[in-house]
Amino acid sequence: MKLSLGPITYFWTKEKTLEFYEQVAKSPVDIVYLGEIICSKRAIIRFSDWMEIGEQLAAAGKEVVMSTMTLLEAESELKMMRRICENGKFLVEANDIGAIQLMKGLPFVTGPSVNVYNQRTLARLAKAGLCRWVFPVELSEETFADMQEERPEGVESEIFAYGRLPLAYSARCFTARAHNLPKDDCDYKCGEYPDGMTLSAQDETRFLSLNGIQTQSAHTFNVLAELDELRSLGVDILRISPQSEHTLEVIEAFHNAMQGKEPAEEAAARLNANMPTGPCDGYWHGKPGIADSVLDNYK
Amino acid sequence: MELVCPAGNLPSLKAAVDNGADAVYFGFRDDTNARHFAGLNFSPEKMAEGVQYAHDRGARAFLALNTFPQPEGWGRWQDAVDRAAEMDFDALIAADIGVLDYACNRWPDLNLHLSVQGSATNYEAIRFFHENFGISRVVVPRVLSLPQVKHVVENSPVSIEVFGFGSLCVMVEGRCLLSSYATGESPNTFGACSPASAVEWRETDKGLETRLGGILIETVGKGENAGYPTICKARFEVGGNTFHAIEEPTSLNTMELLPELQKAGIAAVKIEGRQRSPAYVKQVTKVWRAALDACAKDPEHFKPKTEWLAELAKVSEGSQTTFGAYHRPWQ
């Protein structure tokens, strides 16, 4: 079983991003997904910069995958998607069906926002060049097990294993809205929230995290405790989604548990203590996403 | 432009057809469609009757089969495709790649539309669905601005349908999991946003409290309008302020934009609201028929009549309407 690091979903400074990947290069992660997948306005890291970061990670022995944007509206966004799909060097993660069209049969990965909910979809995309798929986050272990049974030859299965869950995308920017700014003149407010802005319900349940045009869960999904089960289901790759702090520790904890150096449940419990709003794993167990099996908190 | 109207039951279907709908869309009584609510939708017998009623009066009948099956339920979607093909539907509106793949291979003559749940916001995605499954039309998500819609029309190999009126999804359709995060069920998996079984209303001193999956998402004061509770239109606390952090409880009305939509080459305008009453369908269909006819006749001088807007305001959910994303400053 391998360990991957998903694309950064937040708007960090270029310095922080470069520094982050320098550390990642030295970490025990096997696969690194790179690129801006949320908002095309956050263009401080150019395509050539991403390619350079990719080269450095590849030189450090990492498998590099270039990720495409999730919600595409403008022609300029399609242009960037074409550059990524035609990069000629690294594998591509399609986060929208449009990217699959551009791959024209070349191998590609589907990210969590491409709806692969059943075996027939999986088989059809395999014919189009799918070599790895990330299991959609709202589906359960039971569905994953069913799909594994009919998984086409040569297709790897990756699970979103750790991080704030990607829940929704919009044409609107909710971070700008919270600052009474229009999206066209957003002042890059999302840069001030390296883990998103927490949104709470009226009963003070910390509920969601606003990340520009994306809405994430406030709770951090964590299935590390299920490591033995994930192995027996034949999961090929576990994905960690970056947060501004503790991500290297998360990688370390997953790696140690996978190497048998620490019991998975203990490692998972240790990580739970560092989460901004606490853990959740409801989706994997067929419950509301916000629920957590250890806290047993589903109302 | 074709007027495509919703029907949650046979009386609504008749109301749509009798009041000038060019096409009417409806679904089976289960989770194979995105308006899976108790008491709504069609048994196979009523469905056959509905198709016949529409065809006898020159209207087209579309089947909404626009949710995402998982392996355990796959048979239900496959049966629904088979039944639709045998029932002489004019189009099947689907979203899932597996369902589209099955439909185009098993029934090569079946006309396929890509549902808004298929989440195709750009022409490259549309080309994928066209080249692989032969779709003939796409319903585009309600996140595009008018210039963006025009650009899609110019580059799309198939005709484009847009939403003109009704409830408004502020998130791109087919990729919104907010409902299942709180309740375990989403439009993708269950065919409903905020399924009724997860909604709880409680009258308190502070007002009417609304919980979704046990989470307090709204408190409606006396005199305030309580719409159907969805996460995206509730009030939350962000950065010390409590407000509509995602969107106000507005609904969509694009009637003023009709001349521009027509000029852009839009093929059809869709009315949302299969969950609404036959009275809603009748009223909205009637007004929109009149508006489309007026716009086709004289687009240059087209302006929505005050009485049309008054009629629509009576049936709108929430007190405000917007152009949605078609209007750039909204974003």
Structure description:
The complex is a heterodimer of chains A (299) and B (331). Helix content of chain A is 31%, strand content 21%. By secondary structure, chain A is α/β, with parallel strands linked by helices. An eight-stranded parallel barrel of chain A has the order 1-2-3-4-5-6-7-11, surrounded by four helices. In chain A, helix 3 (75-85) packs across helix 4 and helix 9 (247-258) runs antiparallel to helix 10. Chain B is built from eleven helices and 15 strands. By secondary structure, chain B is α/β, with parallel strands linked by helices. Chain B has two domains: 2-170 and 250-330, Alpha-Beta Barrel (TIM Barrel); 178-243, no CATH class. The relative contact order of chain B is 0.15. The two termini of chain B are 26 Å apart. Helices cover 34% and strands 21% of the residues of chain B. Chain B has helices at residues 10-18, 44-56, 74-86, 97-106, 123-133, 146-155, 178-183, 187-190, 258-264, 278-297, 306-315, and strands at residues 2-6, 23-26, 60-65, 91-94, 112-114, 137-139, 159-167, 199-204, 207-212, 215-220, 236-238, 241-243, 250-253, 268-271, 320-322.
Structure keywords:
A: about 300 residues, TIM Barrel, 12 strands, globular, B: about 325 residues, alpha/beta, 2 domains
Describe the protein's topology.
The complex is a heterodimer of chains A (about 300) and B (about 325).
Chain A: E1 2-5, H1 14-26, E2 31-34, H2 47-59, E3 63-67, H3 75-85, E4 91-94, H4 97-103, E5 108-110, H5 119-127, E6 130-134, H6 141-149, E7 156-169, H7 174-178, E8 197-200, E9 206-211, E10 214-222, H8 227-232, E11 237-240, H9 247-258, H10 264-272, E12 279-280
Chain B: E1 2-6, H1 10-18, E2 23-26, H2 44-56, E3 60-65, H3 74-86, E4 91-94, H4 97-106, E5 112-114, H5 123-133, E6 137-139, H6 146-155, E7 159-167, H7 178-183, H8 187-190, E8 199-204, E9 207-212, E10 215-220, E11 236-238, E12 241-243, E13 250-253, H9 258-264, E14 268-271, H10 278-297, H11 306-315, E15 320-322
Parallel strand pairs in B: 1-2, 1-14, 2-3, 3-4, 4-5, 5-6, 6-7, 7-14, 13-15
Antiparallel strand pairs in B: 7-13, 8-9, 9-10, 11-12
